[in-house]
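User: Could you go from structure to sequence for me? I need the amino acid at each position, not a summary. Structure tokens:
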């Protein structure tokens, strides 16, 4: 009798839920309410198979579409950066993570890890600057975006990546769906005769433009190359990884994302430093010297760059050279305009900034007439600061930028130490590939910023979680279940 009663209640609840869902869509005229069944499904999956739900989000990320691009779906200014179907699922996982945190706490070794400390400080500072923000709603939306990425792919990811097989699943799932986007993009490029103009938007609606698309191509190429040469990888997967690497390489070449090309070259240079075991002290000394020389000869360097009058050509060398073309290339001139605005905004609010996520709404008054370009705008719809370093500087003050720089520096130190300490060649190769993928993003981040999107946030925080998981595991005696090479194969 009780079972029959439960069945009746289940059907009544289901009918009421569907009726309410349909009514809300018809009355409000917003198809966002159509996601309610998906949210319920995500809640069920989160409660019973959280690891599979996280991996499902990884697969869905390259195929997700920004809410602003979906007809009939809008969240107004609050919806900045949100994507379907990933954002609602990530929001649900964030709430579940907070409940688990309150109920069970969190691993102290992970909390005491230097990377975790930097990330927590960054989140704390985003919270502080959201309170003092010139646009609090936008800033708190930015905070939520950052929290669901960090909670899912760093804090929960560290638990997930304790099983080495999940590291591979994470990478394979993202690259699998990303490959679908690559073929879609190439098909559109073929239709447009591979012109640069077509290549700038061929990846829409999955990626906003060729720079975000190129950044993710560059980020996964080192890992695919590692899979191709890893002796512990099964032959079929080695061949697949090699084929995908060349597909990604071809896609990168056709992306016309010059910053991505440079990031791959820098990653190759860092690999050589790892290979020849160059000490970190020498590397940091060289970086400091290069920065010092730049400021000493800044005037001469700028004058030299301004003599470069070559427009973008079809040759790879000229494409890369055009990054330094600050006199004739509109995109580079606009980038300099955005950077100058970010610096002037920082001078106005050096300690707390204008608030996370507010740059695009606040920078217009800081433009100088002689720095404006044909693509400059005052409407707040022309993008962000084009820098993962100057963006936080303008939005969160000096501590915002230092927290991101500190994260990059600490990851360099961690990765070089892992390269020296790890005895397991498979893990060493894997950690090297992950680190080099992050290197491409940190380099690209000097010229663009995408961490407010799921496309970049998922692999970025996931890769960091993988490195920390490997570091924590390498400090203790590895159990046979997670440490045996044969168990860790695909």
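Assistant: Here is the amino acid at each position, in order:
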């Amino acid at each position: 009798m009780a079972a029959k009663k439960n069945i009746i209640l289940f059907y009544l609840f289901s009918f009421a839920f569907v009726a309410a869902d349909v009514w809300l869509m018809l009355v409000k005229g917003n198809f966002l309410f159509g996601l309610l069944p998906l949210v319920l499904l995500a809640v069920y999956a989160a409660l019973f198979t959280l690891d599979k739900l996280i991996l499902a989000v990884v697969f869905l990320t390259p195929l997700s579409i920004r809410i602003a691009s979906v007809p009939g779906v809008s969240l107004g200014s609050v919806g900045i950066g949100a994507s379907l179907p990933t954002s609602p699922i990530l929001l649900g996982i964030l709430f579940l993570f907070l409940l688990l945190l309150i109920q069970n706490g969190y691993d102290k070794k992970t909390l005491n890890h230097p990377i975790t400390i930097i990330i927590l400080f960054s989140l704390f500072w985003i919270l502080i600057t959201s309170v003092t923000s010139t646009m609090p709603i936008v800033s708190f939306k930015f905070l939520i975006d950052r929290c669901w990425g960090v909670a899912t792919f760093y804090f929960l990811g560290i638990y997930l990546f304790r099983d080495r097989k999940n590291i591979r699943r994470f990478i394979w799932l993202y690259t699998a769906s990303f490959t679908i986007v690559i073929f879609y993009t190439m098909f559109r490029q073929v239709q447009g005769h591979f012109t640069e103009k077509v290549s700038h938007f061929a990846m829409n609606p999955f990626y906003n433009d060729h720079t975000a698309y190129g950044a993710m191509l560059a980020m996964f190429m080192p890992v695919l190359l590692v899979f191709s040469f890893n002796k512990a990888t099964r032959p079929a997967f080695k061949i697949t990884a090699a084929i995908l690497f060349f597909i990604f390489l071809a896609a990168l070449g056709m992306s016309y994302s010059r910053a991505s090309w440079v990031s791959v070259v820098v990653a190759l240079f860092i690999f050589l430093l790892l290979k020849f075991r160059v000490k970190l002290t020498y590397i940091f000394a060289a970086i400091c010297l290069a920065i010092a020389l730049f400021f000493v000869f800044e005037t001469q360097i700028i004058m030299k760059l301004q003599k470069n009058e070559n427009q973008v050509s079809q040759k790879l060398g000229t494409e890369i050279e055009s990054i330094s073309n600050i006199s004739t290339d509109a995109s580079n001139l606009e980038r300099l305009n955005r950077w100058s605005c970010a610096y002037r905004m920082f001078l106005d609010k050096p300690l707390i900034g204008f608030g996370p996520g507010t740059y695009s709404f606040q920078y217009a008054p800081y433009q100088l007439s002689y720095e404006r370009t044909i693509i400059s705008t005052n409407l707040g719809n022309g993008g962000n600061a084009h820098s993962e370093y100057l963006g936080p500087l303008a939005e969160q003050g000096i501590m915002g930028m230092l927290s991101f720089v500190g994260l990059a520096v600490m990851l360099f130190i961690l990765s070089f130490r892992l390269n020296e300490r790890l005895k397991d060649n498979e893990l060493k190769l894997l950690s090297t590939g992950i680190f080099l993928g992050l290197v491409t993003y940190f380099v690209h981040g000097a010229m663009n910023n995408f961490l407010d999107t799921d496309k970049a946030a998922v692999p970025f925080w996931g890769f960091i979680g993988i490195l920390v998981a490997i570091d924590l595991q390498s400090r203790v005696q590895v159990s046979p279940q997670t440490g045996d090479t044969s168990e860790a194969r695909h």
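One structural detail worth keeping in mind: Residues 20-285+385-483 form one domain.
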